[in-house]
Structures are given as structure tokens and as C-alpha cells.
Design a protein that fits this description.
Largest sheet: 21 strands, mixed
Number of strands: 21
Radius of gyration: 32 Å
Shape: elongated
Number of domains: 2
Number of helices: 7
Order of helices and strands: HHEEEHEEEEHEEEEEHEEHEEEEHEEE
Structural class: alpha+beta
Length: 447
């Protein structure tokens, strides 16, 4: 079979054209040495961010058309501690070739690999990421509206500067962050004068997130960004051996950062929860469920969440309170021994439930109901959580097991009352969580 000479020439031409095209594609990154524009890119970013910027290298890929930035670091501005706001190992920005043909730079997507973000606010309420000179209406590369932003394996830490200029405790942090956001307005995020309604929305996952002394794991949530505001919605997370669902928001528009959270939780292990607080270890066991709403301001002090306030309802089941010693202390008050089931474990309880309020490091419990083994208590009171752990409670105790004539007589002489064959008497608890002091009250607790 012979090949037509004309066809042979066409095949040869096609092969040579293909080889030439492949060679041209491979040579394009060298022909277009994008890294030579690195000083101009750094100068541009420093102008828009208002901060010093470091970049190790720029790269350009054609399939798909994308700009690569290796080791982008942004330093803290004047008035803050030395260090970096953000350090990113690698950034890939996928560009729109049609827009580029018309001399416009439009970022289709931005991928941030392992960013380390350190947010810091000073006592006047300014944040290190802000640029007062940035214009929220701008929509130009690379800080305008970006259709899609992905964060892969990031870390975020937020804290405040103390009046002394030293760094205060971390009040919020998240690690191993994976996020997918749409329509992100970076200019709006860094600008104090942004007029945009939204700076981005999407989803976020984190292997660990901490807010104050509360540590959560395996968090998943929706994320909505607005000018100087962030909303975590539909949160689901593992916390203290149980699970939690709720919402968390931050408002950075004032002199102090405001926060609010509403959460429903179930199965929390009390020994894990209390270990996160000062002098809380070993004070109680059991499983807790309930719902709380908390809000407050982040203060530039060594206790940034001291102004936390809120309310809710909790129930703790099947636990022990070794320092409380319910039955043992009540036994001392009325001096009787025949307690039936109450003598098995004086520190154990079946259920504790209460409505509570938190304000200025004081927890106030209303309608406290404690069902011990052989002892039921109705009362109210407060506990200080400012480090002194003061206790001030009062209530009425009921010995649920029927007693004999002699025991009842001694109980009444000690201030108790007999009703339906059971003993009731008022009491008080003072002192501290570590060393509570039980005493007989002069009148019964009124609900």
C-alpha cells in the first residue's frame, strides 16, 4: 500500500507542529519568567495591605492558567508586637484567561496551603490585619472579589495586647482548618470603611477549636463573613467526651470584640469539663446535658473572658461529688445512722438539675434539684469561679428512707420536720468548693 505524497507531507507537518507546540508549552514558563515581577507584586501588596510583605518566589502555570506564590509572609504593623499576621507556604491563584486577554485579572479560585494566621487586637480595638487606608469598593487583583477560596490545613490563633504592651492569653484558636468559601472580598475584610453586605460564605472544618477553656474536636460548621463580623452556624463538635451543637459569632466593630454563643450539649463528662477550670479537677463525675446561651466582651486582660454572662439549664446524671459528701454531711446535722440506701456512697447522686445564670464570674443556680441515693435536696445558691471558689447555697433536704421513732425524735430536736414518715430540714452550705461547710438553717428553703 502506497501513501499519497501530499498526505505524507500533511502527516509530517502535523507531527512537526505538534512537537513544536509541546516544546512551546514547555518553554512558556521560562519565556514568561513571572518571578522577575516579584518586587512589583510585593510593592503592590504592601500598598494595599499597609504592611511589610515577603515572597520567596512567583511561578506561572498554563494548564490551568494559574499564578503560584511560595512563602508569602505578612508582618505585623507598627503598634503591635514584632512577628507575622500570616505565613502561607504556598498559594495557587487560578486566573480567568478570557479576562486576562482583555487586560483584566480575575481570580477564579485561590488555594491557601497551610496558612498560619495570628490575629491580635490592641486595647484601643484595632486589629493587626486591618488597613485603615484600604477602600472597600475596590475590585482589582489580587485583593478583590474572589469566586472561591480554599484553606487546606490552616491554623488560626486570636489574642489581645495587654495595656502593658505584652501579649495576653489566647481566647480563640483553631487547628487543622479546612474551609471552602465563595465570593470572598479580601479588601472588605481588611478595610475599616467597607460597605459590602458580605465578605464571604461557606463551610469550615477543624480538628480542634478552643474558645477560652472550652476545647472541641472534629468541628464542622457553616461560616458567614461580614464587615468586621464572623458567624459560625450549625456547629457540630465533640466536646469533653460528649457532643455539642449550636452557633458562635464574633463582632469586631467595637473597641472590644463582642461574642455570643448558643449551644445544646449532651453526654459531657464532668471530670473532663471541670479539669479545664482552675481548681476544678476531681470535684465531680457524671454526664451532663443541657443548653446555654453565653455572651460578653473580650477584655485586654489576663482573663479576657471574665465578663462572660449567660443563662441556661443543665442536668447531670449518675455521678459523684467527693467534696460535697451529701449524705455524710446531712448525717452530721441530724446525728442519725439508719439511712438505708444513703449510707452506701455518701458522695454519689442520681441526678442534679438546675436553671443557672452566669455573671461576673459568679454562677447562680435557681431551683436546684439534687436527687441523691437516699437524700433529695431542693435549693438555690451561687458559686464563685474567680479563683476563690466561694459557695453560698441554701435549701431543704429530705431523707427519703423512712426512719424509726428514735431517729425521728433526734431529727426533730435537731431542727427537722417529720412528714409522711420522712425527715425534712433546712440547711446552708458555705465555705469553698474544696471545703464546703454544712450547717442547719433557721427556716426552710422556699422555691
Amino acid at each position: 500500500m502506497t501513501v499519497n505524497p501530499t498526505r505524507r507531507k500533511l502527516i509530517l507537518f502535523a507531527v512537526l507542529a505538534g512537537v513544536s507546540l509541546i516544546g512551546l508549552v514547555l518553554a512558556l514558563p521560562r519565556i514568561f519568567n513571572i518571578d522577575r515581577y516579584r518586587p512589583k507584586v510585593i510593592a503592590y501588596l504592601e500598598e494595599k495591605l499597609g504592611k511589610q510583605v515577603e515572597i520567596d518566589r512567583l511561578t506561572l502555570d498554563f494548564f490551568p492558567l494559574s499564578l503560584g506564590i511560595e512563602n508569602l509572609n505578612v508582618k505585623n504593623p507598627d503598634g503591635f508586637l514584632s512577628g507575622y499576621i500570616v505565613k502561607i507556604g504556598r498559594i495557587r491563584a487560578d486566573l480567568d484567561p478570557r479576562a486576562l486577554w482583555h487586560r483584566q485579572v480575575v481570580i477564579r479560585s485561590l488555594v491557601l496551603n497551610h496558612p498560619a494566621i495570628n490575629l491580635l487586637s490592641n486595647p484601643s480595638g484595632a486589629w493587626n490585619f486591618e488597613n485603615p487606608k484600604a477602600k472597600g469598593s475596590q475590585r482589582t487583583f489580587p485583593l478583590g472579589l474572589i469566586y472561591n477560596v480554599q484553606i487546606e490545613g490552616g491554623d488560626l490563633v486570636a489574642s489581645t495586647l495587654l495595656p502593658s504592651g505584652a501579649r495576653g492569653p489566647v481566647f480563640f484558636e483553631a487547628h487543622e482548618i479546612y474551609s471552602n468559601l465563595e465570593d470572598v472580598n479580601l479588601i472588605g475584610i481588611i478595610s475599616l470603611s467597607s460597605s459590602s453586605a458580605s465578605d464571604g460564605r461557606g463551610t469550615v472544618r477543624a480538628s480542634r477549636l478552643s474558645f477560652g477553656t472550652v476545647d472541641t474536636e472534629n468541628l464542622a460548621a457553616g461560616l458567614q463573613l461580614e464587615p468586621r463580623k464572623a458567624f459560625f452556624t450549625d456547629i457540630k463538635a465533640d466536646v469533653f467526651g460528649g457532643s455539642a451543637m449550636g452557633d458562635l459569632s464574633f463582632d469586631l466593630s467595637g473597641t472590644k470584640t463582642a461574642f455570643r454563643t448558643q449551644v445544646h450539649f449532651t453526654g459531657l463528662r464532668m471530670e473532663h469539663l471541670l479539669s479545664a477550670f482552675e481548681n476544678g479537677k476531681g470535684k465531680m463525675t457524671g454526664r451532663m446535658e443541657g443548653e446555654v446561651t453565653l455572651s460578653g466582651l473580650v477584655e485586654p486582660t489576663v482573663r479576657p473572658l471574665a465578663g462572660l454572662r449567660g443563662k441556661g439549664h443543665i442536668t447531670i446524671r449518675d455521678g459523684e461529688a467527693p467534696t460535697l459528701q451529701l449524705n455524710a454531711n446531712l448525717k452530721k446535722l441530724v446525728r442519725f445512722n439508719n439511712l438505708g440506701p444513703a449510707k452506701e456512697n455518701p458522695s454519689a447522686f442520681n441526678k442534679i438539675s438546675t436553671d443557672l445564670e452566669l455573671d461576673n464570674l459568679h454562677v447562680t443556680g435557681k431551683n436546684i434539684d439534687i436527687d441523691g441515693y437516699g437524700v433529695d435536696i431542693d435549693g438555690s445558691g451561687s458559686i464563685s469561679v474567680d479563683g476563690f471558689n466561694e459557695v453560698n447555697c441554701q435549701g431543704t433536704a429530705q431523707i427519703t428512707a423512712p426512719q424509726g421513732f428514735l431517729t425521728n425524735t433526734f431529727a426533730r430536736l435537731a431542727g427537722g420536720k417529720l412528714q409522711n414518715g420522712r425527715i425534712f430540714f433546712p440547711f446552708r452550705i458555705d465555705g469553698t468548693v474544696e471545703n464546703p461547710t454544712f450547717s442547719k438553717a433557721t427556716s426552710a428553703h422556699k422555691k
